[in-house]
Amino acid sequence: MTPEFRVVADDVDVTAAIKARLVSLSLTDKQGLEADELTIVIEDGNGRVAFPRRGVSLAVALGWKGEALVEKGTFTVDQVGHDGPPDVISITARSADFQGSFKDQREAAYDSTTLGAILETIAARNGLKPALHADLAGIAIAHIDQTNESDANFVTRLGKDYGAVATIKAGRLLFVPSGRGIAASGRALPAIAIRRKDGDRHSFTATDREGTTTGVKAKWHDLATGAAREVLAGEEGTTKTLKRLYPTRAEAQTAADAAFKKRKQSGHEFRVTLARGNPAIIASAPVVFLGWRPEIAAIDWITGDITHTLAADGGFTTEITANEADVE
């Protein structure tokens, strides 16, 4: 089998030119609100390669010869380097979805609204379409401030408060319960089966994240008395208290429940490299590992960062990071 790829730069197919000098092509699909990253390294031994321009748009597809290529998104070149010897040019590009105002600091206040309405507002002002899980969209929020905080940080904070994860894919702002596999369309992703014979090497670790913590407390402002009150998720004993003062009891309880649930999850992590790359594997997708020890196979997994790498010698590998999924 021969790896295949396609790179289109500002609507011009440059695949042949890159292929003639390719050292490596690496594409990392990031989980959460981090931009996916593309790195292309090409040989420049004779110094005749035109230096790539920053700001160029690169549309990339990966796969195998004789099979349909998998579209991996559009990236904007933001860094170009030259190293040697041997002389090479390195081109780094990041997901075009993160090139707008999403990381600009701003001031905003939201009153008597819902989590879904807030996220729809944020999506609209960043030119994105919202894809919100039904379990989260209707959550009532009495008041919340966004003070000198980027939309990226604010959405991440909302995710922590409500047990969710946010990401941007294919022009959509996704906001779903943590540990659930959701596609850019907003639909649930089917599980991917990875068999041990597909893997080149692997690493499994299990860490006790819960430790001695028995519960998580959150404070809320009681308007009737003006006092700060507490709610508890879990049990009294060794507890952790969240820093934020929530405007209602319901919001405080939701935040405490989400934080306690996260602390209870074990620190299972599994890393595996596929000797035969699979471009269809993406971040935040459910995955099943077959053929490894039963302690590994029995866990419900969801993918984290995924890195696809093509090399000049014809190799194509996929590195998978997976964490324990939320199956509730």
From TrEMBL:
Q: What Pfam families does its record include?
A: Phage_GPD
Q: Note the superkingdom of the native organism.
A: Bacteria
Listed InterPro entries: Phage_Baseplate_Hub
For this protein, the record's PANTHER family field holds:
FELS-2 PROPHAGE PROTEIN
Q: What is this protein called?
A: Gene D protein
Q: Which organism is it from?
A: uncultured Alphaproteobacteria bacterium
Q: Which gene encodes it?
A: D
